[in-house]
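Entry 14. Ran structure prediction on the chain below.
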Amino acid sequence: MNAGNDNTLLQVNDLVMHFPIFRGVIQRQVGAVRAVDGVSFDIRRGETLGLVGESGCGKSTTGRAILQLYRPTSGAVHFEGVDLVHLKGEELRRMRRKMQMIFQDPYASLNPRMTIADIVGEPLIVHNVATGREVEERVQHLLELVNLNPSFASRYPHEFSGGQRQRIGVARALALQPSFIICDEPISALDVSIQAQVINLLEELQDEFNLTYLFIAHDLSVVRHISDRVAVMYLGVIVELADRDDLYLNPLHPYTQALLSAVPIPDPIADAKRQRIILKGDVPSPVNPPSGCRFRTRCPIAESICAEARPEFREVKPGHFVACHLVK
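Output, structure tokens:
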């Protein structure tokens, strides 16, 4: 997938993140939660890749494993040609300046005992980028960038609304002038009226600073609006990846088709005519996922081969990748 392309900023190859399960007095490992189980994709400079799927499918874990907040069980994460998985200490710290994360919960991701100036300025101090008066000036500039009054710098997080707190989180992510930002469901905890403001802010900042985003979400309408390409995840694996319009207009994987059939359409006549796909059963446990295709236990078109072999994640037409035995 675009291997060796100079325009590729991030390349993830067969990323695996298993969390061991221990039991008993001597804490013997009895299994593992297969949160991410062989994920591969790349992101080009300046683009937004949307990562969608149901809650618990491994989206956020993928993001954290890319940034090495979780150390992956196996696989490779190449950022600007450097494999982050093998970096430690000061080398990893230097690379982290170029990669940041905007967290899902603006109420939990800001330290309530720190002022906004301390929160936004902390990355500058930790990475020895600025000191003293320079930090203050940089913090004020960052607050202006996210449309907050610089005089708010002396206040504490509890004095702000959810939307304002998320803007503070965006300002903190921008402090070190990164080239890549993982947006981990940055609007899911916000009111609908505020969501559009934050999305517009992210798009404006991307245009101004040529940022590259991995945008994690479960709201398919928002993902279509902000993303250039979209990857669909189910139970730890990516089942489909394509350009935004191609995926939404011509979904090939049965799971993607089911997801998109549930997205509301503003035209009531068109909405009444379309066929909804209702999936049966629950998502299997990542501790003991199904053999072969992960989706086969809920798939309306599953055949015997789906239980026997894991489908290859292959390119079925230019730029459109699918993991399904039955898609030709």
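Residues 192-209 form the longest helix (18 residues). Will compare against last week's run tomorrow.
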